[in-house]
Structure formats: C-alpha cells, structure tokens
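Risk mitigation, structural track. In case the binding assays with zinc ion fail to produce interpretable data, a predicted complex structure has been prepared as a fallback.
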Amino acid sequence: MLKAKKELYYKCKKCGDEIYWNTHKKYTQCSCGALAVDGCEEYVRVGGDAKNYKQIKKARSKEELKALEDRFIDSYALALAAVARELYAKEQQEKENLDNK
Ligand SMILES: [Zn+2]
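Fallback model:
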C-alpha cells in the first residue's frame, strides 16, 4: 500500500531539482551537485548541506507514473501506480476546489 507520507521529494534550493525519496539504491545527484539522495524501502540517505535542500511532499507527476507503468509489468507495481495516480487525481481535485473558492 502506497502511503501519502512516502510521496516525499528532496528539493535542491540552488538548482531547483527535485529528487524522489526512493531512488532504488541509486546514488542520485541534482544538477548542481549540492544534493544527493540514495534511498530504498529500508533507508534513505541524503547527502549535502541541510541548508541547501528541503523536503517537499507532492503527488508524483503523470510522466513519472507513466514511466512506472512502462518499467514494471508485474501487478504489484501496477497497483502501486494506480494508487499513486489516485493520489494525484485527488490532489488535482483539491486544487480545483481551492481555485473555485
Ligand atoms: Zn542542485
């Protein structure tokens, strides 16, 4: 079950890059190199000066979800993608509701 709290990104304050918390143990750096993330289900390691990045929470983008679907064909991953898509749709709906107020 994909939990909303896991929709966590690390955003570099210098270059604006956003790195999803789960990099599948792949050491991932932002464009300017001030931030690095190495995360998986068991741990998340964040490299870089704490003042140069911040944690943000958001639903994953449509492009990312599409990429997920392309990459994984097993039903478990597809179920995760479906949940993430639901969260995304919910967030869009909430945005619309805010706009209408
Ligand atoms: Zn950066």
